[in-house]
Amino acid sequence: MMKARALLLSMLILSAASPAAFSQDAGGLVVLKVSWDKERIRPRASVSPLASQDELVQQSRRERDLAAARNAGDNGRANVIETQITRDNDAKAKARQTEPPRDGYKYNVTLRNDGQKTVKSIDWDYIFIDPNTQQEVSRHQFTSDETIKAGKSKEFGVLYLIPPVKTVSARILSKKDPMPFTEQVVVMRIKYSDGSVWQHP
Fold first, then answer.
1. Are 108 and 91 found together in one domain?
2. Residue 126 belongs to domain with CATH number
């Protein structure tokens, strides 16, 4: 009976000590939740560069020549100039076309600050581990400039073009099948508002 009580007491002590030890090892930050999602990225149209002085002069000259040809009734020359202007405008429009949509992957983490200092920036790694071999399959490294005050929690994420794991089926990437790997986030470096830094040992 005494052995059972002693064992139970030891288990309670370890259970109570684990969260504090984890919090201290992570510089005061506790990982509450990790997840990733597939997103369709639709890039914005490319911004048209400013025309150079030579291009502006050439455009103005063509417009004057076109007006002069029309006023003189020279339809042949007017058609040639119009064709040149149309081709030039088409080339500029093509350069501004939107890129085709592509797949992106958003990696999310929720952290709680159990420390006494305000966090200003976090370096964190999103890791995928084979549960059978315990070998690391993939690691994605991020830096997030996020403010987390003492005692507060915050969820944030990073949109990334690289999939969670390179050798994975399309069904898993589409969330139709479960991910066969264990997912975890490791906080690697923390910068606090007072300028001090914590580094993962």
1. no
2. 2.60.40
For 135-172, write each residue's pLDDT tens digit: 999 999 999 999 999 999 999 999 988 889 887 666 66
Spatial distance between the Cα atoms of 57 and 139, rounded to a whole number of angstroms:
53
H or E segment and range at residue 13:
helix 2-25
Burial of 76 (0-12, 13-18, 19+ CB in 10 A): exposed
Cβ-proximal residues to 112 (8 Å cutoff; 6+ apart), any chain:
29, 30, 32, 148, 152, 153
Task: Report the amino acid identity of residue 91.
Answer: A
Backbone region of residue 4 per phi and psi (left: phi > 0; alpha: psi in -120 to 50; beta: other values) = alpha
pLDDT band at 90 (very low <50, low <70, confident <90, very high): confident
Identify residue 125 by its one-letter amino acid code. D
Q: How far apart are CA 151 and CA 58, in angstroms?
A: 64
Q: Which of 27, 62, 95 is the last residue of a domain?
A: 95
Beta strands in 12-101 (DSSP E): 29-41
Supply the pTM of this predicted model: 0.59
Residues belonging to the chain: 201
195 and 114 inside one domain: yes
Pairing mode of beta strands 29-41, 102-113 = antiparallel
Are 104 and 164 a contacting pair, CB within 8 Å? Answer: no
